[in-house]
Design goal:
Number of domains: 1
CATH architecture: 3-Layer(aba) Sandwich
Distance between the termini: 25 Å
Radius of gyration: 16 Å
Structural class: alpha/beta
Number of strands: 9
Strand order of the largest sheet: 4-3-7-8-9
Shape: globular
Helix content: 25-40%
Strand content: 25-35%
Order of helices and strands: HEEHHEHEEEEHEHE
CATH topology: Rossmann fold
């Protein structure tokens, strides 16, 4: 069974990620990380590599939904707070909200207003940096809390979509680390 074989390198972990053409709409190549996270060795290697970006963080903020997978694991492993940056309508208390464009539509992110403050240092975590809309919105959203944003880390980046360029055009001093280039 592919998901149970021993993975002892980042290259072998990356090979588990599957390309799914035309999902969620024609022309998009979706990066399916489920085989990677199903393999304990591969998942652990990737979480440990992503955690190298923490540098003084008190919290990690995970972008819904696949960013939660990595952010929660990183937070638990390093005894940090975990904050969820959610899609609309999922949080029951007073929120901050930021709207943004996706490569295939529009969306928004929300965060409870009392989750972070100026005493917190945050690293934002996601699975894939594509066009940069979600990550840029996450940076803006966390910025509304007054917390210090130390940077972001993603499992993988799709360079030809120029998401990094888009993020840095709105947040020029922001640090973005990526484990893989797709």
């Amino acid at each position: 069974m592919e998901n149970s074989r021993i993975i002892n390198s980042l290259e072998k972990a990356q090979a588990l990620i599957k390309n799914v053409p035309d999902y969620p709409k024609p022309g998009v190549i979706f990066k399916d990380i489920t085989p990677l996270v199903a393999n304990a060795d591969a998942f652990t290697i990737c979480v440990d590599e992503m955690a190298k970006s923490l540098r003084g963080a008190t919290h990690v903020a995970g972008l819904e939904a696949r960013g939660f997978v990595f952010a929660a694991a990183i937070a638990a492993r390093h005894n940090l707070g975990f904050v969820l940056l959610r899609k609309p309508g999922k949080l029951p208390r007073e929120i901050h909200q930021v709207e943004y464009a996706l490569e295939y539509g529009f969306d928004s992110l929300e965060l409870h207003k009392d989750q972070l403050d100026a005493n917190n240092k945050v690293v934002i975590v996601d699975d894939v940096l594509a066009t940069g809309g979600t990550l840029s919105a996450g940076i803006s959203l966390v910025g509304l809390t007054g917390a210090e944003i130390l940077g972001s880390v993603v499992l993988g980046e799709i360079p030809f979509l120029e998401g990094r360029k888009k993020v840095l055009s709105k947040h020029p001093k922001h640090r973005i680390d990526a484990v893989f280039q797709f």
